[in-house]
Amino acid sequence: MSENLLISLNKSQKSAAEHIDGPLLILAGAGSGKTKTITTRLAYLISIGIDPKSILTLTFTNKAANEMRDRAFSLLDTNSLNTPPLLCTFHKFGLLFLKFYIGELDRKNNFIIIDSDDKRRVLKSINKEIPTALLGSEVSKYKNSIMTPSEVKAQAQGKLYSEIADIYQKYEEHLFKNNLVDFDDLLLLPYKILKNNQKLAELTSQKYQYIMVDEYQDTNELQYRLLRLLCSTHNNLCVVGDDDQSIYGWRGASIKNILNFNEHFKDAIIVKLEENYRSTDTILQHANALIEHNRDRLGKKLVGTKDKGNSIKVYESHDENDETRKIVDDIKSLINSGKNPKDIAILFRVNALSRSLEEGFNKASLSYKLVGGMKFYERTEIKDLIAYFRILTNLSDNFSIKRVINKPKRGIGQTTIDKLEESAQNQGIGIFELIQKATPEELSAIVGKKNARTIKVFEASILDLRELMAESKMRLLDSFEEAFDYRASYDNLPDGFERQANIDEFYGYIRDFFIQNPHLDLKDFLNEIALENQSDEYSGDAVSMMSIHASKGLEFKYIFIIGLEEGFFPIIGDGTDLEEERRLGYVAFTRAMDDLTLSFVHSRFYKGKRTQLNKSRFLIESGLVKGSLVIEKSSGFKKGDMVNHKIFGQGRVEKAVNAGKDYKLTINFGGQKRDILSSFVEKN
After folding, report:
1. In this protein, which residues make up the domain named UvrD-like helicase ATP-binding (predicted)?
2. Does one domain contain both 404 and 513?
3. Do the Cβ atoms of 59 and 68 come closer than 8 Å?
4. At what angle do helices 90-101 and 185-196 cross, to 10 degrees?
5. Residue 666, annotated ligand binder?
């Protein structure tokens, strides 16, 4: 039976599936059949008599775990399996482990897992001033860096990070006292238990004699260390992954885990899966040409198994509207020729670029869906701005006033808003009219002295902007930012870059509207976008729009990639990891099965203003357009990297710039920022 399992595999896949003992890295290129290989290996191990109970397979998503389970079991006689092998996510394994062994930490096994909303509520109950998104992100980073609150406190410099360290301590005390476990604890607590109990670590390792890990390039430091403990009595670890598809460095994934696999696990064997069953040979040639510009990679070259296929199209457009028209025309032609919309996808590096696409599709009555994202005008930061601008055109808009009177946060809670609304209703007037009519003393009687002062400043800012708007529409946005610092309120937040990009796109669109329609005003603009936003909800199959991150693991017959300009793709500056940007390009190219179209424009909204842009270096590096290559030495450091300095301790890189043979790093050591040469620090 075991030989029959291997019949459908190619030579490399068969070599990987037949490997039994010792560490194995299956370096699986895009579309090379990695899931088929790892599930066949699982079935093969069972077919030669290895006890299913001794096999542990770890994935990152429940979807991947379920797919692997179904495919592996379809190859086996499941009736003869007394106990199926454990195949689950890292976090599910952690949960099962804690059910048995959390007592090692003096805790009961009736613990409750809290979700991200619960976590935010707990953090907010400890501190209402610091944004909960920032607190949640920092706490998660500390846990995945295996740092205790006391370690964080010892390294914290500066008021903010010292305060966050205290909040982390109180948060951990709250979890312990109430026997709660957060998502990160599902990995951290099992690691602590195994680290502190060598005998239990050995018993657990002996129980799981064969361990397999999917998407190994996405593992972080904590997952790697946990795996080391699970392999403490053996080295039978098989990991599958692709260093060229490591695109989650920003959320803690460490590419060094896969790059250094043969150093971490002695006598490791590497099997490369390079035969691609997804894309045409033409697409693969250009994807290979692009990724070969990366230095930090193990090296492999995808070989096509399909026909050469059509040439890759490259669209050069004046601006985003011109770009959208071309793509809409192409997609209309595809659909009119009988192609299914679900086989078509548009990818972008920055979510803000969906705006012009959405408008173009709505005007053309084309059905679309945003995968893993939200429609542009439904994004919180855009709805907030629209609410602000509605107030500027209509002071009686109570709904909008209630939405933004505390955005950015200025200490106006829901109770205060309710009091304002109740008082306004009692007087039969709007909330803003109440604020205008009331003296500071009268307003203080309603909402308290401190809130009254804050609300009066809000009122003055709105009235000043209305006056300015009557004089100069073009100065409105700069003055709005000066008054409210709305864009700046997203500084340092985990998703701040994306939200600020959306804000910039919206500001740019307003400016363009006024330039093209000098006789129209803000109210006309708001009416225009309200009409655009009232798109019909189409039923049936739809074209997919998504970020490149969201596209990983998917495939489509027809792929369009937009925004191939320097600054948008790749994102450049501020310590960006250019190699990870290039891996994103490789991922995007290899989503396409039959046809690939790339698009760049000469002009797009950049940081709130229409800007002349240069075409992406990726178009040149992939051999699709002529041009001089942009040579840029890789610093090996990127924004967000954790580093150690022998004097200043642990810090996070905020910026990396060239400084002769070395690199100057701006590092945040617990709130204290220092410029340090890269040769004086070590990466964590």
Report:
1. 7-280
2. yes
3. yes
4. 50
5. no
Are 56 and 171 members of one domain?
Answer: no
Closest residue by Cα to residue 380 from 359, 404, 398: 404
338 carries a ligand binding annotation:
no
30 annotated ligand binder = yes
Placement of tokens 């179209």 in the chain: 597
Give whole-number Cα distances, 323 to 328, 538, 564, 592, in Å.
Answer: 9, 23, 11, 19
Catalytic residues: 34-35, 214-215, 245, 591
The CA distance from 176 to 170, in Å, is 10
> Does 29 show up as a binding residue in the annotation?
yes
Q: Quick one: average pLDDT of 421-437?
A: 93
| 518 and 386 both lie in a single domain | yes
* d(C-alpha 19, C-alpha 240), whole Å: 13
Q: Are 676 and 645 contacting, i.e. CB atoms less than 8 angstroms apart?
A: yes
Residue 25 near residue 269, CB atoms below 8 Å:
yes
| pLDDT tens sequence across 294-334 | 988 999 999 999 999 999 999 999 999 999 999 999 999 99
Specify the pLDDT at position 634. 46
3-state SS assignment for residue 280: coil
In order, the DSSP letters of 112-181 are: EE--HHHHHHHHHHH-SSS-HHHHHHHHHHHHHTT--HHHHHHH--SHHHHHHHHHHHHHHHHHHHTTEE
Phi, psi of 146 (to 5 degrees): 55, 45
Scored b (16 or more CB within 10 A) or e, 612-647 reads ebebbbbbbbbebbeeeebeeeebebbbebbbebee
Output the pLDDT for position 682. 79
pTM for the full predicted model: 0.85
Range of the domain at 262: 2-96+188-273
104 occurs within a structural domain? no
CA atoms within 13 A on the CB side of 527: 7
170-213 per-position pLDDT tens digit: 999 999 999 999 999 999 999 999 999 999 999 999 999 999 99
The conformation of residue 665, written as its DSSP 8-state character, comes to E
| Among candidate residues 681, 671, 684, 654, the one with its CA nearest the CA of residue 156 | 671
Can you give the CATH number for the domain in which 313 is found? 3.40.50.300
Q: How far is residue 193's CA from residue 199's CA, in Å, rounded to a whole number? A: 11
pLDDT in tens, 333-365: 999 999 999 999 999 999 999 999 999 999 999
651 is in an annotated binding site: no
